[in-house]
Amino acid sequence: MNKTKDAMNEQLAQAKILPLLVRLAIPATAAQLVNALYSIVDRMYIGHMPGDGTLALSGIGLTFPITMLISAFSCLPGMGGAPLASIALGEGNQKKAQKYLCNAITLLFTISVVMMAVCLVFLKPLLVLFGADAETLPYAFQYLTIYLLGTVFVEFALGLNPFINTQGHTVVGTMSVVIGAVVNIILDPILIYVLHMGVRGAAIATVTAQFISCVWIVHFLSSEKSGIRICVEDMKPDRQILVSTCALGISPCTFRINESIVVILLNRLLLTYGGDQANLHLASMAILSSASQVFFMPLLGIVTGAQPLLSYNYGAENYSRIRQTIHYARILSMGCATLMWAALVFFPEAVCGMFSSNPELILLTKKTMRIMFSTVLVLGFQMINQNAFVAMGNTWYSFLFGIMRKVLILVPLALILPHFIGVWGIYAAEAVSNPLTTIITFAVFEQYMGTLKERMT
């Protein structure tokens, strides 16, 4: 174990940045893309269900805020504790790094129990609040009732995998996701079509897949292959560890909560301004949400690959390697973002056809996709800057830019623009918010890096 750990630490400290970044980012990117398949595969199979596929897709779209909320809270211990564990490793403090892992387990279990209980008790009122009506409510309720019973598996699978990636074991982290995704892809058609379980079958497939991923991750983090291991003794809550974990994790957590809040708001606005096509707009937004997930997955993979390098060298106070990592990460991220943008803007019909065969829905989504994603390519640049704050443990800036794009810019625009251009303003709000956020984040980040250079050199 020590040889493996020392070899990885030596690479983070001394290896050439670009080859190491690519080697870390490729499996992490693959993992993120595969991770997106969980909800996307469900929606693809459900959208093609004979008879009520479009209506069922609308209902599943309404569950997105709650599933995103569950995912968001896994970031509090996962994305908060993992960078701090890596910084501790950079400082040479393995015991402290292990405490971050074990306290994250305690926090994840607590979050799982509370969220499952609260959501199950208030499920129907929440779905109605999110825009469910008599036609879409049954589908949303059936899916979420089963999904919520597996909350602990979802939280552990999503919240503990960053502790594998932060050690540089991105191949193992990728396998954690791939195993679950393969199970989900195999079970979906069997449960939905062969056993005629509909949306219930999709939920059972997802929960089963997350359970298997959870077992794989816990097994690795308990083995000698992991540089920091699960230890019952270190699961005892440590106030200092938990406070620092939550302080840093609040940014990625808030970012995903914002996604949930914004989807709720946009769905309500679509019902208000969509007229007699309101349910069709909800189905279109469900497709756009899935496409957005796919778009962000490669970028998150690059961010995940860069995080161990940034965190370790921040702990070691090596400014030169931090700056090089950010430079190359920006290039890789912008390249991926440009390719994804081109696919969404120039080939929207092919993307829509993956989710539905309804010609009316495909025609509408071709328009909404081109509007909503017209400027999304600039986020390849913005995400590296935003997540570098998280990797380097900067609580305030990571929180500020975690809420900026969605809450501070997009939401006001989504409320204002429909008064001038109707329902299309809801989609245009996303397009306007992207470049504004990118410019502001870049200006602040470069100022921060100047201060960091003075301190470290």
UniProtKB/TrEMBL annotation:
Main location per the UniProt record: membrane
Q: Which residues cross the membrane?
A: 20-41, 53-79, 100-123, 143-164, 171-195, 201-221, 241-266, 286-310, 331-351, 371-395, 407-427
Give the record's keywords alphabetically: Antibiotic resistance, Cell membrane, Membrane, Transmembrane, Transmembrane helix, Transport
The record's annotation in InterPro entries points to:
MATE_fam, MATE_MepA-like, MATE_MepA_subfamily, MdtK-like
Where in the cell does this protein reside? Cell membrane
Stated membrane topology is:
Multi-pass membrane protein
Q: Which domain of life is it from?
A: Bacteria
What is the protein name for this chain? Multidrug export protein MepA
Task: List the source organism.
Answer: Ventrimonas faecis
